[in-house]
Specification:
Blueprint lengths: L1 H16 L7 H16 L4 H22 L5 H12 L2 H16 L3 H9 L11 H48 L11 H24 L3 H11 L8 H12 L1 E9 L2 E9 L2 E2 L2 H34 L1
Parallel strand pairs: 1-3
Antiparallel strand pairs: 1-2
């Protein structure tokens, strides 16, 4: 029950305060990683693994040590709050939606460019809405459910390792000339750490939406996606919402033909709100499961 209360407290803090405006630990970690990369980068898997160890191990061990102190519950709440990006994801997506509803396509393109790595300058309204929904569904796992999963499973060290590895993957996990080998280790680590959370996120999306269609899309389409974890999450989310995602996208000027995800109509501005509501319903389901599990565990121990 204590674990469920910590998760709830962190979610309330995130919903109330949003991300720290100054001195965000993940921003600081990103700058540290950039500085290290300047000195250690090479077209080498071994160098990339060494860099990952240097950045991840000390902070994970430190979190484990701090979690043994008397005030560990407050530390856990603060740590999980910093690791969550629920409100930030919501705010970024709503800014895109507002621009689309105001028929300001230029602003919508700029704002969705803050959420995705693809080229956005030439996207039409449907393309902007689709990119936003894809980002919302995928980051629902990365910034919300994955962090909660690893905190519940492994406490402070687990959520620190997960969130920092996820940050490094966002920086180095690209399949281009600079990072194909150097970023290989962090990309594979992120895949491993996200394997279970992504599938639990997909289950959550299915249970709070169109369950049958979500499972059908997950089974038939999720495995076709280039990412082994983003595929199931986005396929289940798209199927649950009854929209069509995927297809052609441009990255650094190069066209990529991605498999389709979901079924139904193409994404529109109102689907952004629907995707955000899907995350809220799935999050409520997760919290009910956590509290029920805590209540059962406490009842068995007391009994």
């Amino acid at each position: 029950m204590i674990t469920a209360l910590i998760v709830l407290a962190a979610l309330v803090l995130d919903a109330s305060l949003g991300e720290p405006r100054r001195l965000h630990p993940l921003v600081g970690f990103g700058r540290l990683a950039q500085g290290l990369e300047q000195y250690i980068h090479a077209d080498s898997i071994r160098r990339g693994m060494f860099a990952a160890v240097l950045l991840l191990v000390p902070f994970t061990l430190l979190a484990g040590l701090l979690d043994r102190l008397p005030w560990s519950m407050l530390f856990d709440i603060a740590l999980l709050y910093v690791a969550l990006g629920w409100r930030s994801l919501d705010e970024h997506a709503r800014r895109v939606r507002d621009a689309l509803l105001s028929h300001d396509l230029s602003a919508a393109r700029r704002r969705v460019g803050n959420m995705v790595s693809r080229d956005t300058a030439a996207l039409d309204r449907e393309g902007v809405a689709q990119a936003t929904v894809e980002s919302v569904l995928e980051n629902g796992n990365d910034a919300v459910f994955g962090a909660i999963f690893w905190f519940v499973l492994a406490g402070a060290p687990g959520v620190v390792l997960y969130r920092l590895a996820n940050t490094l993957d966002a920086m180095w996990g690209y399949r281009n000339a600079r990072y194909l080998r150097f970023g290989w280790a962090v990309a594979r680590l992120d895949d491993v750490l996200n394997f279970l959370p992504a599938r639990l996120t997909a289950v959550g999306y299915a249970l709070v939406g169109n369950f049958t269609r979500a499972l059908r899309c997950w089974h038939s389409q999720g495995t076709q996606w280039k990412s082994p974890n983003a595929g199931p999450v986005m396929a289940a989310g798209a199927g649950s919402l009854g929209i069509l995602l995927g297809g052609t996208a441009y990255y650094e000027g190069v066209m990529q033909v991605r498999p389709p995800l979901g079924e139904g109509h193409k994404a529109q501005a109102d689907h952004i709100d629907r995707a955000l509501r899907l995350i809220r319903r799935a999050l409520l389901l997760w919290m009910l499961v956590l509290f029920a599990n805590g209540w059962i565990a406490d009842y068995v121990i007391v009994g």
